[in-house]
Amino acid sequence: MRDHKPATLCVHAPDAPGGFEALSSPIHRASTVVFDTPTAFKNRASKVYDGYSYGLYGTPSTRALEDQIAQLEGGSRALVLPSGLAAIAVATIASVQSGDTILLPEGFYGPARTLIESLLSRFGINALRYHGDGLRELSDGAGPAHRLLWVESPGSTTFEVRDVDKMANAARARGMRVAMDNTWATPLGFQPLRHGVDMSMQSLSKYASGHSDVLMGSLAFADESLYRRTKDVARLLGYGVSGEDCFLVSRGLATMPLRLERSVATAAVLMDQLAASAEVTQILHPSRTEHPGHEIFVRDYATGAGIFGVVLRADLGSGSKIDTAFEALELFKIGASWGGAHSLIAPSDPKVGRGDLDWLPDGPYLRIAVGLEDPEDLAADLFRFLDALT
User: Fold this and answer.
1) What CATH number does residue 13 fall under?
2) In angstroms, rounded to a whole number, what is the distance separating the alpha carbons of residues 294 and 179?
3) In a domain, 48, yes or no
4) Within a 10 A sphere around the Cβ of 198, how many other Cβ atoms?
5) How far is CA 62 from CA 74, 218, 239, 355, in A?
6) Phi-psi region of 339 (alpha: psi -120 to 50; beta: other; left: phi over 0)
7) Which of 238, 263, 293, 378 is 20 to 30 Å from 99 by CA-CA measure?
């Protein structure tokens, strides 16, 4: 396909094989793949990367979605996996071995941090957390055993933006591989592979599928050998995805630009209204001039996301008071994800377990993910909540 804009690539998936043409992607269900000859059967392992050898390792449904994601990410290959966490696990395991060290941001996605710091540590893999952009750790401490740098920008809890080009250049100059969680911005907002990143990961459960009913993750690559190495890890771990879920993600991609645009626009309205409220101390979103990394966001990102943080006044911190206030919400549901049609709200304390949030005021913290409801209705819902607090 020609070098079309991302919104076009969301609608027009690569052509499916077989001579059948329709506007929707076909669903292929398969465990067993059959072969025409004994020789073809004996050589089936050679089809793992570009053909079909067993249903777990890929069908036309998975290949079509992978090709579409690769195009959106500006890469040559992509791999779909059962979840975003699975994608992080595969990318990590493919990059390190016993004795190696992984650099993680302080605010890294919680389950993935636990995976690396707890589970992989049993196999002699070390984890080192870095503050800010990690340049100090890269310049002062990175040695031959430092193999992988994980970047999450913006962070999924407090949304700090990092200079990915600078970090990737520093890591690769020391022989480290670079992986990035790009779920917040999606490939519509940022394409990590064009900024020196080796593996771009996103949770397709969020904006890509768009309806809170699919679990899937993806990895995109510019390098064929890295794709094959990572594919081997996924295959040996037994990771596969269903044709039905691939269809749902592909269908979601077609409307992702419109849904994302609506979510971002509504979030902007809500942030302005909340910022003027006496109950709110700070709004966290990269589009706001006071936010950490705002200048980088303006420079590097084509769009943002409709998810932001709210710090409430410290005197509103009584647990029972907040619990009662949540009962006033009608539209916002308490949940930990984002990117779907329904708006979500999640209370948390982002300072727990982190040492890099001196800039964040004290007070109850809420992460708000904006869906597709009418902005006036969502605003009224949030202000019912604030009224209940006071």
Assistant:
1) 3.40.640.10
2) 22
3) yes
4) 25
5) 18, 11, 12, 41
6) left
7) 238
The DSSP secondary-structure symbol of 17 reads S
7 residue type, one letter: A
Provide the domain count of the chain: 2
Long-range Cβ pairs for the range 116-119 (8 Å, 24+): 116/92
- pLDDT mean for each 10 residues of the chain (390 residues): 75 64 78 84 84 84 94 97 98 96 92 95 94 80 79 94 96 94 97 98 97 97 97 96 96 96 98 97 97 96 97 84 91 95 95 88 96 97 94
Task: Supply the pLDDT for residue 232.
Answer: 96
Last-in-domain residue among 204, 229, 251: 251
Helix (H) or strand (E) holding 201: strand 199-203
Residue 1 lies in a domain: no
Range of the domain at 326: 257-389
> In sequence order, what DSSP letters do the residues of 155-176 get, joined into one string?
-TTT-----HHHHHHHHHHTT-
**pTM score of the predicted model:** 0.92
**In this structure, are 159 and 107 located in the same domain?**
yes
Examine the fold and report which residue of 251, 284, 315 is the final residue of a domain before the chain moves on: 251
Q: What is the CATH number of the domain that holds 280?
A: 3.90.1150.10
Whether residues 181 and 305 fall in one domain: no
For residues 165 and 195, is the Cβ–Cβ distance under 8 A? yes
384: Cβ–Cβ under 8 A, 6 or more apart, which residues?
328, 329, 330
How far apart CA 295 and CA 274 sit, in angstroms, is 23
Residues belonging to the chain: 390
Longest dimension (CA), the chain: 75
pLDDT at 20: 59
Q: Do residues 275 and 210 share a domain?
A: no
Alpha-carbon span 1 to 188, nearest angstrom:
18
**97-135 b/e (C-beta count within 10 Å ≥ 16 → b):** eeebbbbbbbbbbeebbebbbeebeeeebbbebbebbbe
